[in-house]
Design goal:
Blueprint: H1 21-26, E1 31-35, E2 38-41, E3 46-49, H2 52-55, H3 64-76, H4 88-100, E4 107-111, H5 114-131, E5 139-143, H6 152-157, E6 174-177, H7 183-186, H8 202-210, E7 215-220, H9 236-246, E8 250-254, H10 268-272, E9 278-281, E10 293-297, H11 299-308, H12 325-340, H13 343-359, E11 367-373, E12 376-381, H14 390-401, E13 404-405, E14 407-409, E15 412-415, H15 423-436
Parallel strand pairs: 3-13, 5-6, 5-7, 7-8, 8-9
Antiparallel strand pairs: 1-2, 2-3, 4-10, 9-10, 11-12, 12-15, 14-15
Helix pairs in contact: 3-12, 4-12, 5-11, 13-15
The structure holds pyridoxal-5'-phosphate.
């Protein structure tokens, strides 16, 4: 077997996800090790992790307690099914996770990824409506520019055209709210933008169009990440919650990115003071050391499904690896680190410093907007005429070569470092970007 630090001699068989495969295989850039805030690249240099891997390594890399929990569990219980049987670690992980969720969302369904969490949440919403005798409520409402992973459910309610256009007609009975990005009124906002709460009224428009009795659930990211850091306007999520309540529609927050301290609390729901009915999670749940996702469900939704079912299986849904022992062990260790090191609070403590750093780039070449919340930063570049996305991609490659990992989506640089980041490392991120931006045409 190839060791992680030995380079493979054939790059062709691995069809890489969300990648320009032809370019990559001509210009491979690889990681061979990771510790704390840094990757080691195959070329030998250190790369400061400005993105927590893919918004997921919230506690920093190579955490010994997590590694040890995985190692120990692999030797003790490599796998156990959770269909009609169980093992203690899955129950313990669910209990611990439920304590971090907003009050009432204390029933946990395990998955293996954010995409599976989203599809599970949508299915739970439909099953709930049917269970309570509202079987006409089958319509799912997402939002333009939303990212909810890559399952058919997720891309149907999602609103990123590039992720949809190759795949036919998708789910039927789906509609979308308008997105909240409004640079004319809100550019260079620190924290939540002031304008746009009224965009939530789009849901009233869809209720008038389709009839409330056809709508099962609305799903949004409280802070949209993968589409380029869209922060909810002040009052927007509150209004969405009110309209859902008025029409008896379930509200789902996709917190795959915002969960586990990214904006300073266990959930964005807690930080922003709006409680949905269902929360989807993944990524930071295990600090990304083992794949795992989860859906936190309001107890009444869970109980309705269980209590209305005939004796036997209540929800015909699940995954071979739901609550996998290694993932459950990693989750328990990860939640322990978040708590013992106060990492969610750390994101709050660093937030002002981080905001100053992000906004220090406002006059850098090509920059047309900077935005921030918690330890998330978005820096939007003016697209190169007739070649959108190319400019940001060049910044990405130059950053990597200069020892900084960033993420780009369209022409937006998205930053989300591990929550253990130190102030000098925040400085390093913006100093590197400030040096690179003028060198890119
Ligand atoms: C909000 C949101 N939902 C779902 C997903 C999908 O997660 P995964 O890639 O683990 O399937 C992501 C991934 O970035 C995400 O940001």
């Amino acid at each position: 077997m190839t060791e992680p630090n030995e380079l493979p001699n054939d790059l062709a068989p691995f069809w890489m996800p969300f990648t320009d495969n032809r370019f990559f295989k001509e210009h491979p850039r690889m990681f061979v090790a990771a510790k704390d805030m840094h990757y080691t690249a195959s070329a030998g240099h250190q790369v400061l992790d400005g993105t927590g891997g893919l918004w997921c390594v919230n506690a920093g890399h190579g955490r010994e307690a997590i590694v040890e929990a995985i190692r120990h569990t692999a030797g003790q219980l490599d796998f156990a099914p959770t269909f009609q049987l169980g093992h203690p670690l899955a129950f313990e992980a669910a209990s611990r996770l439920s304590l971090l969720m907003p009050e009432g969302l204390d029933r946990i369904f395990f998955t293996n990824s954010g995409s599976e969490s989203v599809d599970s949440a949508l299915k739970i919403a439909l099953a709930y409506q049917k269970a309570r005798g509202q079987g006409t409520r089958t319509r799912l409402i997402g939002r333009e520019r939303g990212y909810h992973g890559t399952g058919f459910g997720g891309i149907s309610v999602g609103g990123i055209v590039g992720n949809r256009r190759q795949f036919g007609t998708l789910l039927t009975g789906v509609d979308h709210l308008r997105h909240t990005h409004d640079p004319a009124r809100n550019s260079y906002s620190r924290g939540q933008p002031q304008h746009g709460a009224e965009l939530a009224d789009d849901l009233e428009r869809l209720v008038a169009l389709h009839g409330a009795e056809t709508i099962a659930a609305v799903i949004v990211e409280p802070v949209a990440g993968s589409t380029g850091v869209l922060i909810p306007p002040v009052g927007y999520l509150e209004r969405l919650r009110q309209i859902c309540d008025r029409h008896d529609i379930l509200l789902i927050f996709d917190e795959v990115i915002t969960g586990f301290g990214r904006i300073g609390c266990a959930t964005a729901a807690e930080r922003l003071g709006v409680t949905p009915d269902i929360i989807t999670l993944a990524k930071g749940l295990t600090n990304a050391a083992v794949p795992m996702g989860a859906v936190a469900v309001r107890r009444e939704v869970h109980d309705t499904i269980l209590n209305s079912a005939a004796p036997g299986i209540e929800l015909f849904h699940g995954y071979t690896y739901s609550g996998h022992p290694l993932a459950a062990a990693a989750a328990i260790a990860t939640l322990g680190i978040y708590q013992s090191e106060g990492l969610f609070q750390r994101a709050v403590e660093l937030e002002e410093y981080w905001a100053d750093a992000i906004h220090s780039l406002r006059d850098a070449r090509h920059v047309i907007d900077c935005r921030n919340i918690g330890l998330i930063g978005g820096i939007e570049l003016e697209p190169r005429p007739s070649a959108p996305t190319k400019r940001a991609m060049e910044v990405f490659h130059r950053a990597f070569d200069s020892g900084l990992l960033i993420r780009v989506t369209g022409d937006i640089i998205a930053l989300s470092p591990p929550l253990i980041i130190e102030k000098p490392q925040i400085d390093e991120i913006v100093e590197k970007l400030a040096a690179i931006l003028p060198t890119v045409e």
